Amino acid sequence: MSYSRLWSIMLLFIILQGCGGSGNKGKFAEYDMYHMAAPQKDLLTGGQPSLEDLQRLAKRGTKVVINLRTKGEFKRFNEQQVVERLGMKYVSIEIDGSDGITAKNAQRLDEALNQLKQPALVHCASSNRVGGLLAYRAFVIQKKSPQESLAFGRSAGMSGTEKKVKKLLGL
User: Fold this and answer.
1) pLDDT tens string 42-99
2) Which of 21, 32, 155, 166 meets the CB 3.0–4.6 Å disulfide criterion with 171?
3) How far apart are the first and last CA of the chain?
């Protein structure tokens, strides 16, 4: 292989590496959280936050962190202890994949968001469950149309749960 061809391949690899990352763009580029979004005022959504993300969120005024991951799904640090040490409220609503997108869980999320101080972060591993549950909440509790609910869920990170959500919305 020629030196110039090798150099070109290495340069392409370096450029492509720079295109990877957390999936965040624009104002959320400093966060490690995957698929971070702000689908409405005072509501942030995303994947699992890092320790640094939680510190940034606390400094910027986030009041509550709602974790949709199941017990034992994340073991790198004790999220509840970190969140509470940083002065934020911690809420756990365990959502086990698309099967956890239910009216009961949508109600639990709605109560947490309405009763706790805002702004809030709702997260799971990738934001997929977050978007799915928020879409169903929009439909069943906030009485939004199926199309509005689906769009809201997508803006909050829904992807793999969309099939289940569409069925729940009658689409």
Assistant:
1) 999 999 999 999 999 999 999 999 999 998 888 888 999 999 999 999 999 999 999 9
2) 166
3) 55
Q: Torsion angle, CA of 129/72/23/84, rounded to 10 degrees?
A: 90
Q: What top-level class would CATH report for the domain 28-169?
A: alpha beta
In angstroms, the CA 131 to CA 45 distance is 8
**What does the alpha-carbon distance between residue 118 and residue 66 come to, in Å, rounded to a whole number?**
11
84-143 pLDDT per residue, tens: 999 999 999 999 999 999 999 999 999 999 988 789 999 999 999 999 999 999 999 999
Contact 130, 74 (CB under 8 A): no
Handedness of CA 135, 73, 42, 142 (dihedral sign): positive
DSSP state at residue 126: S
**52 vs 56: CA distance, rounded Å:** 6
- Tell me the C-alpha distance between 110 and 86, whole Å: 24
* Cβ proximity of 32 and 77 under 8 Å: no
- Torsion sign (Cα): 75, 20, 130, 54: positive
CB 168 within 8 A of CB 136: yes
